[in-house]
Amino acid sequence: MGTTPEHPAVAKGLDDVYVKESKICLVDGLKGRLIYVGYDIRDLAEHSSFDETCFLLWHFRLPRRDELETVRRAIAEERKLPEEIYALLKDLPKSTVPIDALRTAVSALSAYDPDLADDSKDANLRKALRVTAKVGTIVAAFERIRQGKKPVPPDPERGHAEDFLRMVTGKAPDPLDTKILDVALIMHADHSLNASTFAATVAASTLADLYSAVVAGIAALKGPLHGGANEQALKVLLKIGSPANAEAYVEKALARKEKLPGFGHRVYKNFDPRALILREYARKLSERQGDMNLFDTATAVQDVMLRELQEKRIYPNVDFYSGVTYYLMGLPPEVFTPVFAVSRVGGWTAHVIEYWQSNRILRPLDLYIGPMEATYVPVDRR
Ligand code: ACO
Using an 8 Å Cβ cutoff, are 219 and 45 in contact? Predict the structure, then answer.
């Protein structure tokens, strides 16, 4: 395709196109670095918490001790859901895909937010906190309902990750699981202008409300090329079954030109730092279980992929090891992508509120290549 006025270049997939400035997040794909507001993800994973990370994304600085306590408390108290949302979740067919149930419930949730019509920055920050707090409760409640069990109400005395696991399983979680989920939530909270954040920003750029933007984000997250890859990656590993089968499986898949879920990234041309951190936690969970088979299978697949796709610079992405990690924590595969949303809602809302500070409707072009000058023929003469 040329670059004349009649045939302008088409930026298919919007590779390398900048559409906004942001102070929230940098993905340095060549160095394999991820930074939130100046802080390296490895430092945040080690020292921060999900509540603190959300404050950082929303306010562009770390909270003071009293502010941290306030945001922690507010998220804990806002985890509760209106009874009508539980009723809506119970009314959905049990076969509903959990990420669809989440998208539906978040859409309905907007009707219960007293600030819905207030588009001031303060009101949007209040809405951001409320919806961020409630996504985990919705995911956990629908998982219980899907399993024919009663939803477990949130407990504001517990941390966000701990309470989520408790609401899913009905039991107080092991501290290692709580720690790992908190780290996973920190690391999934933002990733610059990924597909779901872009979708949320497009919706927001029309001055639709914050909930509409979050619903757009969830819709885009669902796909297997984005957040849906964690569930698919785990399913592939379970199908491979053991390290001995990895080489043959990967070789056959590559020969069929398949893209293995959990590998590749538009921006990372090096190791995804989140995958490296989760890989170590997956190892710890496997050791606790006394069964290294799944971890060793993942390692064998990774080795073959790195060897075969070295030139294309394909590395494991976060979804490869989040799938393994969540499975080893006992979470059902169907909730892996919703768990991604439990965290990414923090980033979606942060980007949308930032974008609104200098909003411009996002309206790119498509290059029309269809016919011209067609003559309309009435239906009974076609
Ligand atoms: N397995 C095998 N080959 C791959 C993979 C993969 N997972 N990903 C990319 N490649 C190959 C492509 O076939 C292509 O080869 P070619 O040049 O010979 O045609 C080359 O690497 C470049 O890949 P593209 O598809 O052009 O990369 P793009 O930036 O368009 O896509 C994407 C990125 C969608 C993530 C892709 O790598 C993919 O489909 N991966 C699997 C799904 C996945 O894991 N998604 C999660 C991403 S992370 C996240 O969203 C949280």
Answer: no
Q: What is the mean pLDDT of the chain?
A: 96
Q: Supply the DSSP symbol for 37.
A: T
Q: What is the pLDDT of residue 2?
A: 57
Long-range Cβ contact pairs of 203-206 (< 8 A, separation 24 or more): 204/352, 204/355, 204/356, 204/359, 205/355, 205/359, 205/360, 205/361, 205/362, 206/361
Instruction: Give the active site residues.
Output: 265, 319
The ligand 1 atom nearest the CA atom of 194: 50
Q: How far is CA 41 from CA 28, 230, 315, in A?
A: 12, 20, 18
Give residue 331's pLDDT band: very low, low, confident or very high (50, 70, 90): very high
- 130 phi, psi to nearest 5 deg: -60, -50
Residue closest by Cα to atom 2 of ligand 1: 259
pTM, full prediction: 0.96
In the predicted structure, residue 162 carries a pLDDT above the cut 80: yes
Q: Whose CA is nearest to atom 35 of ligand 1?
A: 265
Quick check: helix, strand or coil at residue 24?
Answer: coil
